[in-house]
Amino acid sequence: MRAFQFIAEAKGVFGRKKGDTYVNDNGQSATFNRAEMYPDTKPNNAYKDHATALKAVERIQTRTGKEITWVNQEKPTNNAFAIMFMDTEEGDVMLWGRWYRVVPANVISSWANNEIPQGWLWSSKTAEKSRSGMTPQDLIKSENKFTSADELLQAIENNGASPEIMEGLRMVASGAKVAVFKGLGDKLTSVRDHLGEIISPLALMSGIIRDTNSANAQKDILKTNYSSCAVWFPQNKNNNLVDSEFVAPDGHTLGVSTKGDKGAKASVKNIWDAMNEDKNASLKKKYKHAVSIIETIANEGQKMGPLVLGERLGIIDSYLKEEILHHIDSKTNKPQKMSQNAKKLFIAFGSKSSSPGYNIGLVLLANCAKSVAKKLNEDTKFQEACRAFLNQASIIQVYTDAKVVGGDVHITGFRTVYPPKFDGRVMIDAGKNYTSTAIKGKFSFDIGKGAS
């Protein structure tokens, strides 16, 4: 197996240059790193059977700590595959894969540019135009609390929102049955999902959303009308699950999640907040093991969290924990100075001492974090606990219904869920914030398929 080097005029995925950008309809971007063919680049070559190919896939996923997103359907006759290695703007890695019967004779044109995961586009001029600029981070740019719809709309207009966006938002704020965003029909997804993060709280404030769920959330949590509350929009996305939050005069808060039907991102803060609500005292007693883990992630620092949990879960011992801390603090980069246990941990996910800029201590920490995540992701009781706490969180989920009419986007209605319902797998991800060169944050939580 080797990575391809290609001439500029090459076509398709294997013709992409390192650094070429892809964007998705959530405004996220990722850059192409390389594409690799397996088992190698020899035409018509293949693994001996599909089971062997699957084992090769498993090795790659174990080494990288990432699941491969496939762009075509797996078949029993597929005995070769290719992987695109993508670098995200957060410093993470994504893997996109394509199955083949055998290695194609003409690899360079075998994977078309449009054969990528749904929602992603190669960042040509057309793709660049699809980037919405419609999120609260684009249009609000502060964590100020807005006490009225007029105050919120003024801030959005001051930040350069287009007349079409402003006209539609004013219709929502006025309580219009149907809000129209003129000329934005080609940006339906961005209006519904990105601008929807602003539309939803406006619709609650104006009384457009008047169903039982929204009324119950208002009564149970806020103890007052939505229009009597202030609203703010987290800018750094540490809250993840919530895109905005209502704050009642007495301090009660209700988060609004407008994630749509995609897998949602959660954080230890979301679970911690829900876990420590008075009403969830019985759940804390039921899930003592999970509570202890969540408390450790929340209370320990970014560096110590994985090590404390790693020792508790039997992944490392106290000696290896101290060795890892020594390597991090002394910034050593000489593999021969590692103990045998450290060397085993170092290679656990395919780490190589030849990687540029690596720090032995940070590699060991990252691999400890990945091992902790793997163990917890296999712990169905821990996942059950996380779901249980999230489903008792002070959150209302809002889904926006929209359609294109004559080139315009019409917001036609809203659907709500309260109490929240998260029924997918709650998975811990260590790869995003723990790398061989930096510590960027704590464990992140993904809510996979099946989540509302």
Task: Describe this structure in a few short sentences.
The protein has helices at 50-64, 125-129, 136-139, 149-158, 163-173, 188-206, 212-222, 268-275, 281-286, 288-299, 304-312, 318-330, 340-346, 360-377, 380-390, and strands at 21-24, 29-38, 68-70, 80-88, 93-100, 120-122, 179-181, 230-232, 244-247, 253-257, 264-266, 395-405, 408-417, 426-429, 444-447. By secondary structure, the protein is α+β, with helices and mostly antiparallel strands.
Separation of termini?
Answer: 40 Å
Q: List the strand order in the largest sheet.
A: 3-5-4-2-1-6
Query: Major beta sheet, specifics?
Result: 6 strands, mixed
Name the helix and strand elements from N-terminus to C-terminus, one letter apiece.
EEHEEEEHHHHEHHEEEEHHHHHHHHEEEE
Characterize the quaternary organization of these chains.
Answer: single chain
- Outline the low-pLDDT stretches: 1-10, 125-131
